[in-house]
Design a protein that fits this description.
Largest sheet: 2 strands, antiparallel
Strand order of the largest sheet: 1-2
Number of strands: 2
Order of helices and strands: HHHHHHEHHHHHHHEH
Strand content: under 5%
CATH superfamily: NCX, central ion-binding region
Structural class: mainly alpha
Shape: globular
CATH architecture: Up-down Bundle
Number of domains: 1
Helix content: over 70%
CATH topology: A middle domain of Talin 1
């Protein structure tokens, strides 16, 4: 047990940051923008430390159950972190566009950033990398449907009818996810897996010993505890970030990118490792699965919060965001239709990610 605790030094560092930040919250916020911004950066680093441990234990659980269940656990843990941070920030009367911008940023980061960089690096090392194209098609059509319902159609809904459409959106997202989950873990689970040639291990040893050493109860406990720590840190971080950025002229979407980046940080490392190991199916499941989970799970929670508070969020994407999403999904559909990725396809997505960053810097 002591050795297991020692291995959680990153999480313990985050706990220490939380213990320091909570009693010093008022001092942090009351000593000017520079102090608040520095504190926010430190807290973001602490949140990333905690999220890395959450992802580590999610990854251990994932290895025990294998794909598609494994990557589902990993993506759901990342989305859980994002939802917790968003819920806390929105309760502090954050920008009404924060939810929309965070979901949009997460999709850009997952599909164009993670998938693009992974396919680029993996393609340079391995050439063409195989995966199950059924998974890519399933993910893409679900993402398009979910984003269309929750983030495009609201532009045309009269303000007086927002509650009715909000309730419809919650129901639609839950039904979509229930059917998708049934397909992912049920009779169509083979859509989301790919049979790679087994690698021989020295001395005939496989991964069984490593898997047997995974303490499921410990991993679940640390995962839950890590999410709680992230929630505590996010409470102070959101306030410090608001104070630190006030009047600086920072792009409005910056906070959303920070939230999306925090939740995606562990996924980036996992996806890159998978790509370099020539396991593109895991990359596809992580990148597209995270995008889908972000939309289809974050929207119902946030819409429920809006209904409870009586204050609607601005969910309809801007014209620029809508165009970027459609370009991304069209490129994704073209690139991921043949069961193999390469460096050129990765580069197209990564250029789109660079475009997203440029537009964000321009405040668009």
């Amino acid at each position: 047990m002591l050795n297991a605790i020692k291995q959680e030094y990153w999480l313990l560092l985050a706990v220490l940051a939380a213990l320091i930040a909570l009693p010093m919250e008022h001092a942090l916020l009351g000593h000017g923008q520079a102090i608040a911004l520095a504190g926010a950066v430190a807290l973001i680093a602490a949140i990333v430390c905690a999220s890395l441990r959450v992802a580590h234990h999610a990854e251990q659980l994932a290895e025990r159950v294998g794909d598609p269940y494994g990557t589902m656990i990993l993506t759901l843990s990342a989305v859980l972190v994002e939802v917790v941070i968003l819920a806390i920030m929105m309760s502090n009367q954050a920008s009404p566009t924060l939810v929309r911008d965070t979901i949009y940023s997460a999709v850009m980061l997952d599909i164009n950033g993670i998938l693009g960089l992974a396919a680029l690096m993996g393609g340079i090392k391995h050439g063409e990398q195989p995966y199950n194209d059924d998974s890519a098609r399933s993910y893409s059509v679900m993402i398009l449907t979910a984003m269309g319902i929750s983030m495009v159609v609201p532009e045309f809904i009269p303000e007086s009818d927002w509650k009715a459409y909000s309730m419809f959106t919650i129901g639609a997202m839950l039904v979509l996810y229930a059917v998708f989950l049934r397909m992912q873990v049920g009779p169509h689970s083979y859509f989301f897996s790919y049979s790679y040639p087994e690698k021989k291990h020295r001395g005939g040893e496989g991964h069984g010993d490593d898997e047997s050493q995974v303490n499921v109860a410990w991993s679940i406990g640390v995962l839950v505890f890590g999410v709680i720590v992230i929630g505590v840190l996010a409470e102070v971080m959101s306030l410090a970030l608001d104070v630190g950025l006030e009047g600086t002229g920072a792009p409005p979407v910056l906070t959303a990118i920070v939230v999306a980046g925090i939740s995606a940080a562990p996924e980036i490392l996992t996806a890159l490792r998978a790509a370099l190991a020539n396991r593109m199916q895991s990359v596809v499941n992580i990148a597209l699965g995270a995008s889908l989970s972000t939309v289809i799970l974050t929207v119902p929670v946030m819409e429920a919060m809006a209904l409870y508070s009586g204050q609607p969020f601005q969910m309809a994407m801007t014209p620029v965001q809508t165009v970027m999403v459609f370009i991304t999904l069209i490129v994704c559909a073209i690139n991921l239709n043949d069961g193999e990725t390469n460096a050129i396809e990765g580069m197209t997505h990564f250029v789109l990610f660079a475009t997203f960053i440029m537009l964000a810097m321009l405040g668009l």
